[in-house]
Amino acid sequence: MNRPLYAIPGSSVPVAAQPAGPVPALPTTVAEVLAQSQVEAVFDELERDLVGLVPVKQRIRDIAALLVIDRLRLAQGLANANPTLHMSFTGNPGTGKTTVAMRMAQVLHRLGYVRHDRLVAVTRDDLVGSYIGHTGPKTKEVLKRAMGGVLFIDEAYTLYRPENERDYGQEAIEILLQVMENQRDDLVVILAGYKDRMDSFFRSNPGLSSRIAHHLDFPDYAQVELLQIAERLLATLHYQFGTGAREAFDDYLRRRIRQPHFANARSVRNALDRARLRQASRLFGERDRVLSRDELSTLAESDIRASRVFDTPAP
Predict the structure, then answer these.
(1) In terms of Cα–Cα distance, which of 43, 73, 36, 38 is closest to 61?
(2) How far is Cα of residue 131 from the mean position of the Cα atoms in its chain?
């Protein structure tokens, strides 16, 4: 896919948007595009990495389908305007937004929409300065690093603080608006955050809202899905639940979900890390005993139920 040269914000040096190399044969079928791009391997990784999120995964496949058909149209000499693919990911912490963004970068790269498969993840602190003249260079430097790939701005709603007239977030927003419109064929921006705060953010910044083509809502995980996530995480680390430990962790989840600051898969990972610490402390106390492979890789029920979550009555 031939792309024009672009100029990085703040620079007069043009950069080639398409790497040099042999031009592959033009595809004529969807199967040929999929074979050339190997994009289905990314979908397999997404399924392996994330439990649930069926509507989100389907939306990613729909976007990929659009790009596949665009490649076939281009091969036939049909009019082919690059679609706008800036996105909004909304949901609570630990629902997989960053992981999906990383896979989205791979999909876009393999289908020729961006030059790199990298994801540059930033927050307000990476974009907004603390004094006059500081925000512009910071924002442009981030855009320079992200150009040719995907820029992921977490807690994007923090860029806009109307209650503080000395805040410089609006300057960063204006620079983003310009780049999202003028260089949308070489950069995809994903804005992420809590749904209610992102809705308010877009209402206050209609220019940004109009440039977002895809809004993906990441639901909280159900308890059964969180238990599946826990088992996958343990398997990755070569651990397993011992007798009664799986049931104990299910009980832990039932209690923890109802407590403040629950963060879905992130809280599951943190809980397992603490359980591993308790297992290590328990085994460490038996210094002279030869520990088997099974003992070193098994979390006992007591390692789970020692959590402070069990100190309060079950709801």
Answers:
(1) 43
(2) 30
